[in-house]
Amino acid sequence: MSKFITRFAPSPTGPLHLGHAYSAMLAYDMAKAADGQFHLRIEDTDIDRCRPEWEALIYEDMHWLGLTWEPRVLRQSEHLSAYQNHLMSLADRGLVYPCSCSRSDIRAALSAPQEGVTPPDVYPGTCRHRPMSDRKPGDALRLDLTKALDQVGLLTFAETGAAHRGTHEVDPKFLTREIGDAVLGRKEIETVSYVLAAVIDDAAQSMTHIIRGEDLYQITYLQVLLQALLNLPTPVYHHHRLIRDDDGKRLAKRDDARAISTYRAEGKSPEDIRKLVGL
Ligand code: GLU
Question: Which of 7, 91, 128, 201 could anchor a disulfide with 96, C-beta 3.0 to 4.6 Å?
Fold first, then answer.
């Protein structure tokens, strides 16, 4: 039987909160129970929002929570050329195109009258005809979803999280309707999007199980497609419930009241955190 290898992959864009603690502790517990490995990966490709002080706080909070991880921490900012190579391999196959649309361009195109049809909230394909040779500084790179789907057969993935347990087919109609031509290369040249970097690293780190929040469930369909296009294995997915605030809203990085560092400062213990998140 293959070894159980999983990871916690926070972005250092703010303090870890209860939701992160739940995700990290659940992945850690599942790895321990399976006598497997638990890795920490720092997803710091977003140079505008990531800060060294948030990264330092991640290590501090994780240590305080009593978690230990495999010695080599993968920091995505140190692997940008590997991501770029994969992105360019998709571009060489004609699966990616440059896009100069701003958010407001996209909104305007989406709100064009369509006789009673509510347009889906996905990219309308304005730049789809543009060749890569036309890429200008500041252009994003998008996946041509229709062409990409033509290159793969039936795709499936296994899910073990309670809300979606079972084997799922990647339905092309769902991807077209809900995801569309996703941005894979961000506006900053040499920076790829989280969806692509995560898929490349999950394979590079031989992840067998991806344990993460329910908010990332839909993106799994796109990630399984990217795995097929790049000839990478598909791990087992486990999407867990989200930790919500008293009003039922999902916690966000700005919820300092539920930051782990706040609980620490208030004298709470890691056991208290486990109880708070229901572990
Ligand atoms: N970096 C992502 C986040 O902070 C997690 C990605 C993943 O677990 O696949 O939400």
Answer: 91
Calculate the dihedral angle through the C-alpha atoms of 34, 36, 37, 43, rounding to the nearest 10 degrees: -50
pLDDT tens, residue by residue, 242-275: 998 888 887 766 677 789 999 999 999 999 999 9
Q: Break the chain into its structural domains and give their ranges.
A: 1-78+244-279, 80-242
Tell me if the domain spanning 1-78+244-279 has CATH number 3.40.50.620.
Answer: yes
pTM equals: 0.93
Determine whether the shortest distance from the Cβ of 9 to ligand 1 is under 6 A: yes
Q: Whose CA is nearest to atom 6 of ligand 1?
A: 9
Would you state the structure tokens that stand for residue 20, as one six-digit string? 């992160």
Ligand 1 neighbour 212 (Cβ under 6 A): yes
Q: What's the CATH architecture for 80-242?
A: 3-Layer(aba) Sandwich (3.40)
Q: Is the pLDDT of residue 108 over 90?
A: no
What token pair was written down for 265? 């400062």
Q: State whether the beta carbon of 198 lies less than 6 angstroms from ligand 1.
A: yes
Nearest CA to ligand 1 atom 10: 10
Our answer on whether the CB atom of 44 is closer than 6 Å to any ligand 1 atom is no
Choose which residue among 194, 214, 226 to substitute to test ligand 1 binding: the one with the highest number of ligand atoms within 8 A of its C-beta.
194
* Intrachain domains 1-78+244-279 and 80-242 with the same fold: yes
| Confidence band for 107, pLDDT divided at 50, 70 and 90 | confident
Q: Which of 192, 91, 109 is nearest to 147 (CA)?
A: 91
Listed residue (74, 48, 11, 42) closest to 186, CA to CA:
48
d(C-alpha 111, C-alpha 32), whole Å: 50
194 CA: nearest ligand 1 atom: 1
**Whether the CB of 201 sits within 6 Å of ligand 1:** no
